[in-house]
Write a structure and sequence with these properties.
This protein is of the alpha+beta class. The chain contains four helices and three strands. The protein is elongated.
Length: about 100
C-alpha cells in the first residue's frame, strides 16, 4: 500500500460490543458509541477520508448543513440574537 493510501485510523471492537477507532500513529483510541458494524465502518471511512482530503471537509460540511437546514445561508446575526433571547427569562431576557 502506498504512503498516500495508508489509513490513519483502524477499527477495534471491544468485548462488550462497542466499536472504537484507533489512531495508528499514536495508539489513541476513541469510542464510536455504536455496536452496529455497518455504522462503525461508515464512520471509520469518513474519518480516514477527512485526513486524506482536509480541503474537502469544509465543503462537505456546508453541503450537509444546507441540506439539513435550507435557510441557514440567509440568516443574519439579528436572527440568531432574537432566537437566543427567546430561550432566556426574567432579568436575562430584558438585558
Amino acid at each position: 500500500m502506498s504512503e498516500a493510501m495508508q489509513q490513519t485510523f483502524g477499527l477495534i471492537r471491544r468485548p462488550w460490543g462497542v466499536f472504537y477507532v484507533k489512531k495508528k500513529a499514536t495508539g489513541v483510541q476513541k469510542s464510536l458509541k455504536t455496536s452496529d458494524k455497518v455504522e462503525a465502518v461508515r464512520l471509520l471511512v469518513a474519518m480516514n477520508e477527512a485526513t486524506r482530503q482536509p480541503a474537502m471537509n469544509l465543503s462537505l460540511a456546508r453541503v450537509y448543513l444546507r441540506h439539513s437546514d435550507p435557510p441557514v445561508s440567509t440568516r443574519t446575526w439579528q436572527h440568531v440574537m432574537a432566537e437566543i433571547i427567546k430561550t432566556k427569562s426574567g432579568e436575562n431576557q430584558v438585558r
